[in-house]
Specification:
Pfam families: Acetyltransf_1 (PF00583), ATP-grasp_5 (PF13549), CoA_binding_2 (PF13380), Ligase_CoA_2 (PF19045), Succ_CoA_lig (PF13607). GO terms for molecular function: acetate-CoA ligase (ADP-forming) activity; acyltransferase activity, transferring groups other than amino-acyl groups; ATP binding; metal ion binding. Keywords: ATP-binding, Ligase, Nucleotide-binding, Transferase. InterPro entries: Acyl-CoA_Synth/Transferase, Acyl_CoA_acyltransferase, ATP-grasp, ATP_grasp_subdomain_1, CoA-bd, GNAT_dom, Ligase_CoA_dom, NAD(P)-bd_dom_sf. The chain has 898 residues and is of the alpha/beta class. It has 6 domains: 150 residues, 3-Layer(aba) Sandwich (Rossmann fold), CATH 3.40.50.720; 137 residues, Rossmann fold; 161 residues, Rossmann fold, CATH 3.40.50.261; 182 residues, D-amino Acid Aminotransferase, Chain A, domain 1 (2-Layer Sandwich); 64 residues, Dna Ligase, domain 1; 167 residues, Gcn5-related N-acetyltransferase (GNAT) (Aminopeptidase, 3-Layer(aba) Sandwich). It contains 30 helices and 39 strands. The strands form 7 sheets. It has an 8-stranded mixed β-sheet with strand order 32-33-34-35-36-37-39-38, sandwiched between helices. It has a 7-stranded mixed β-sheet with strand order 9-8-11-10-12-13-14, sandwiched between helices. Strands 21, 26, 27, 28, 29, 30 and 31 form a 7-stranded antiparallel β-sheet that branches. Helix 13 packs parallel to helix 14. The longest helix is centred in the middle third of the chain and has 21 residues. The chain is globular and about 95 Å long. The two termini are 25 Å apart.
Amino acid sequence: MAIKKLDSIFKPKRIALIGVSNNPESVGGITLRNLVGGGYNGVVYPVNPKREAVFGIPCYPDVKSLPKVPDLAVIMTAAKLVPTLVRQCGEAGINGIIIMSAGFKEAGEDGKKLEAQVKEEKSKFPDMRIIGPNCLGILVPGLSMNVSFANGMPEKGHVAFISQSGALCTSVLDWAYESHIGFSYFVSIGNSMDVNFGDLIDYFGQDPNTKSIVLYVESLSHARTFMSAARAFSREKPIIVYKSGRFPESAAAAASHTGALASEDSIYDAVFRRAGLARVYDFGNIFDFTDLVGRRRIPKGNRLAIVTNAGGPGVMATDSLISWGGKLVKLSESTMQKLNEYLPPFWSHGNPVDVLGDATPERFAEATKIVLEDEKVDAVLVLLTPQAMTAPTETAEAIAEMAKKTSKTIMTGWLGGASMREGIQVFNKAGLSSYPTPEQAIRAFMTLSHYAENQEMLYETPKEVPLSFEYDRNLLREKYLKEVFPKAKILNEDDSKMLINDYGIDTTHPTPAATDDEAVKISEKKGYPVVMKIYSPDITHKSDVGGVALNIKDEEMVRATFRNMVKTAAEKRPDAKIDGVTIQRMVDNKDAEEIILGIKKDPEFGTVMLVGMGGTSAELFKDKRLEFPPLNEQLARQMLQSLKIYPLLEGYRGAPAKNIDKLVEVLIRMSYLAADYPEIKELDINPLIVTPNDVIALDARIVVDEEVLATPVKEYSHLILRPYPESLITTKELKDGSPVTLRPIKPEDEPMWLDLLASCSKESIYHRFRYDFYFDSHEVATQFCFIDYDREIAIVAEVEQEGKKHIVGVGRLIADPDVEVMEYAILITDAWQKKELGYIITEYCMKVAKIRGVTKLVAETTRDNKPMISVFRKLNFKIRFNEDSTVSVKKELNGESE
């Protein structure tokens, strides 16, 4: 397993340092000193053919001469030597490598060629994994293992930190050491030639000692691996990301540093949002946020109370909180009564709770305790300013002692200079976050709150939107690939609208006219008023050349507009071939809003969808939202709700509400189109008119990806997320002849899934989960219905009774990160047992696993689950009865026929 192979890097018993020298200030010298002097219990082998010993430690000429095979080799030589050294390591049986050497793709074309040589050598050894090149190294505090040239070792903790910048790593380490923040792992990945963010998220996600993951990203490769890994673990462990190179100028700088091209920031934003990550935009937020999650004081919501000894800082914190969308809690009557009884009469009588400038440590602590006991409060920010009667250190000690008795989040701000330092150290040692300004505390708190909100929104149960298509989509695809797409790189408006219309999105149909006589004839047939547009395969933006005319009401206007439009277009674009104009019916856009809807293929992240404010001002105002197909009802609706113009769609200041449900359906239909056609490079519908009744595409443009058209790609390889596997829907018959539909589960199934479990006996639930499983909550249901079809799939058995659909069974396959082994589990409601449904579902799940390339199925049940053991026996699983009354089964899928 590729992920488990990372053990050789993060849990090595023997480490070879290749290229180490006697210079104590060199990369090799510092790394050797860090390992030998830092408490690492394993064996370290210096390797250098020019040295007999380094710092008194015997040195070996090459890896072949080492007394035992190391788990990990660290290469720190000149870049040109690295390909040969990687080959030698592979031949010696070394599976883990860290390449600290620089001079690869970040250094230009010669470096790219050198890195390609390293990849070629690595490809000869399937079990080898490489971190780097151009990296600082790794630190594993739990093993006292500092395999880097960074000074010092952070404390043991629960945060895994992964960075593309070595320089940033040293800054974070310095801060963490002073702030007493601990890490489970600390990794500089450099160019991430082999091991990437996705691999490390998978590895650390399975580590029980890692509670959260922090990423510093300059660019992402292996986008689908990243998305799959992040989605798999972000619900259980907060993943925080800072993305540098957000704008074109800084993106160019990032590319020169890492050797990778940067995609536009809005696409990265969509990636992080869809993966359920928390994104920070200020570098300082990395420290603030890491501090908060590193101390495992994570608030459950965004309702904050503030306790302070001065009004000013409380107001500053409140301003920052409101600007970030937080909630200043209105304290309960009971809390107010307790505070009135305890505090002096002149306290603020509200939130923020001003305990006054003469507050003693006891007053501070007791007021904070009273506020924390309020059920409405998710977290408390305690602010202290130095005043004549203030005792900062003693107050910090009182707050730290009180904090031991609560699980709620406490943040502190000891505002000032030297007199505050001792108190801040008290908080650091007590595991409480402390910030130099109220604003920094609020930013950290709200970033975590937004993360929680995003998680909740991501897993809201969507409504079922039944979609039907007039044509078979497979036959339709054959037609367009054969007859339409080869016509031109940019399809004309008619062909573009035809495809959109075939997917159920209403359009106005333009008809070409080569002369003014033809234009008149077509206009009269369609009925005035009409719209005239220039007809040219070379002109994409028609408005720029005077190529769009609206509300043409009679023959005279048609002829005059035709002549002027053709003449103007020819003058502005003399290179363009002009075939005349197109005529289409004029749509009454009274009480309508203009939307832009489109898809674009990004070189790294594949096809992305866009919706936003439309019309000629779309690029000016940039009111837009990006998402990745596939979309469901909830995701489509969230895209619209995020737009600034959404109130206009709802009906603003007496204007009638627009048909938002129809617009949601159009977005979902567009996501089907995006998934079905990797051959589309760009598709724009602008404007898409939304009225109280209709949603109509007035203009459309499709740019064909000629490379994909000429060389077909693997199905759905252009998508960062695997769509709903429609191909796995099938119908079977039970032994009594009744039909049952087998299909993958989807988020919309949550109500039926809950009904399924409610209809099961305690025995059936125990056989499936092997404990008293509490299922009746949305949070639990999302874990089973909202799944990543890349590494998990559940096949439900659906029947229809009295016109209503029910799920009566579900077989679930969960893969390891490498999708080589799948764990299988099955649940069938009691009323549908003993009808061979278990056999049918299990046999079909075996087929699904084989389609995915899985080599082995494993499962566990209990000895008293005799019907399921019988099913496994019929399907030739190997069965082992364990001493603890459990039964383990496995099935090798290699070489079996379908």
